[in-house]
Records
---
Amino acid sequence: MSKQLQINRSNIPPHGTPVHLVFEEPDKEILDNGLEVFLINAGTENVLRIDIVINAGSVFQEKKLTAASVGKLLKEGTRGYDSSEIATLIDYYGAYLDVSVTKDTSTITLYLLSKHLKYLIPVIGHMLMEATFPEEELRIHVDRQRQEYLINSEKVRYKAMLEFNKLVFGEGSAYGQVLELADFDMIERNDLAHFYKRHYQPSNAYLVVSGNINDEIVGLLNQHIGKTWQPGNSFEYQVPNKGMVGIRKKFIEKPDAMQSAIRIGRPIFSKKHPDYNKFLLLNTILGGYFGSRLMSNLREDKGFTYGVHSFVTNYKHAGFFSVSTEVKADSTEMALKEIMFELNRLQTEKVGKDELSRVKNYIYGTFLRTFDGPFALAERFKSAKNMGEGFLFYKKSLNEILKVTPEELLETAGSYFSPEEMITLVVGKVNNS
């Protein structure tokens, strides 16, 4: 198997010139149960990363906290291993096991030495098939999450994050749901068992192996996952409700706040949209790196904040753009005006060639760093796979970004930075009094 990406770092490419990267898609195997396995053979050390990606994120839950609780309790006991046995095995073999749950997916990730796979893959198999979700562990988990929620709820930044998500997608939608205090009393073990049985199926998942891959790996995966993790009831993937914007301006007063959290943004299109790469470049200029316009204005020039950033957040079926910052409470109104000033400037003035060249070079460098090493390649591949693409998607995207002109940026800003389309949220002090 050959390496997935070859980069010649001896020459720095001219700014704005499409790069010529050699990509190879991962080798693909199919286990006996139909589970797709993608093999990224790269690196020289005898280490592996196993990622099992399941469409079991929070957008699919019927009751809040369900998806995250299932993910958390996968390591807390199965019919074959109790929680202490799982922890002891992982520790003894010097491995690392994590389960992360996002809005779209639940991912079981295992880092380990290649020679120890035969000892640890049975544990993963049991987690996929025979998790027990002990009642006591669920109560401990919920109580801990409740305490974290109560502490975080006093922070303007956390409150703004929840409220902005609700404004962008709508409170009743799959992507717009946010936790409320009452939700912690509603979750039950049966909710976890039902969600697990329905969504943790091989037909609803795929597996990525990255690192120094040998010929035994697929056989071990098939023995402990392909032959034993059998499909349950008939399963059909359902696209979650994306929701829609309701209120466009909201102010949540916290009279004693020393800072105000500001969020300004809007829903956006998917990565496959023809304007996505131009928008991504525009976002970087605005607030996507330390030398951005927002940082220069609000931090360096005005001293309103320690940091201000703009983001493009992508989910599988939805996404949003946002400007995010926390400013001194008495600077709230002035900070809002300066953010809108920078958004307006991109709609009315062409980006200069020097600035454009500098930002393109920054994106190019960031791009290369995110493909450096087998585990980084795995992250990139998962992101592409979740939208039905492969590595070539990134080559196409980078080449498009490096070709964008000032005129195209001006047109893109005019289309998507209109004040009428923006959602504005402030949590803290909303005036100068």
Note: The chain has two domains: 31-226, 249-428.
---
Amino acid sequence: MATRTSKLKRETKETSITVQVNLDGSGKTSINTGIDFFDHLITSFGKHAMLDLSVNAKSNDRIIHHLIEDTGIAIGNAIDKALGNRVGITRFSYASVPMDESLAEASVDLVRRPYNKINLLIKRAQIEGMSKEDVEHFFSSLSQNLNSCIHINVRYGENDHHKIESAIKSLAVALRTAAGIDKKQKGIPSTKGSM
């Protein structure tokens, strides 16, 4: 089987981002965006998806929104590239992950049709130095650029930090299974014969 890795560099006037992914890793991460809570979320994502993930993101214009958006785009693109033609993958998965009083669910279809529906139930305008809209936009940018159909729904919770963390972990666990190799699957996992 081919190595399922990718390395991607995204350079714009706004940001400079390098991402390396190994889908068949062990959850090792090295994350540096300059935003502590953002680093924590991406680290959790890599750890629980059991993929090796390295992200080095630098803002060129000092606009946080651009850094968060472009990081989501770059991670999504890198995972999409590492998935290759998606032969032999499980394709579908679902995960429900609690964090204290919060519960989030993610459903993933690694078909090559980008769609996402994300409901994080965030109440506060700021969470650990990140704006509510930037957190939501990160999830959307990552999902869309992963070139897949992803639904994330926080069912309930009181603490916005917990809601966001359970959401990223549920996405990670669902992705881990969906991207995993299914030994019974021969070829493209679609009746179309194409993704």
Note: Residues 5-179 form a domain with the Ribosomal Protein S5; domain 2 fold (CATH 3.30.230.40).
